[in-house]
Amino acid sequence: MTAPPEPVGTVHVVDPSPLNWLFITWNTMEEPIRIDRDGRVVHSLAESSEWLDDRTLELGLRRNVRFQDGEHFTAHNVKQNFDEMQRWAAPHPPGTWLNFPAPQSTAEVVDDHTLRFSFPGPDGLAIGKFRGFHIASSAFWNGKDAPGFGYKKFGSGEGHW
Description:
Oligomer: single chain
Strand order of the largest sheet: 3-4-6-5
Order of helices and strands: HEEEEHEEHHH
CATH superfamily: Dipeptide-binding Protein, Domain 1
CATH topology: Dipeptide-binding Protein, domain 1
Protein name: Solute-binding protein family 5 domain-containing protein
Shape: globular
Domain Solute-binding protein family: 41-138
CATH class: Alpha Beta
GO molecular function, one term: peptide transmembrane transporter activity
Number of helices: 5
Number of domains: 1
Helix content: 10-25%
Radius of gyration: 16 Å
CATH architecture: Alpha-Beta Complex
C-alpha cells in the first residue's frame, strides 16, 4: 500500500453569502453517513452503524483516512466536532430537525475507530442527521488561525464566519 500524498497547501474559501457555512462545509468536509439518490443510507467516514438499544448508536469509522492537513481521522475528531456543535443553540438553523437534543445527547470514544452516541430517547432520524454532520480536523478548531466556524472572531460559531 502506498503512502497517501503529503498536503501541498491551504485552500482559502471566500463566500459572502449568509449561507456560506453551508456551501463551505458541503464542499470541504466529509460526513460519517450519506444518503444515495434512492434515499438509502451509505456509509462514508463511517463504515458501520449499529443500534445497541433504542437510545444508543455506535458508529465504526474508516481507517487510514486523513484530513487535507495530513492529520489522521479518528473517533476523537468526530467527538470534538459533535461536542463543539452541541454548544450551539441551533447548529443547523435551516433544518432544526438535524440538531441532536442538547445537552442530553453525548458522544463517547470507545476506541480510535469506534464512537458511541447516547440520546435522551429514541431518535429515528439520528442516522439521517449524520448526513448533515460534517467533520473537520482538530486544526480547524484548535489551530493558530483556526476558523472554527467563527469562535475566535465572534465568540460563537453561529452566524457569519
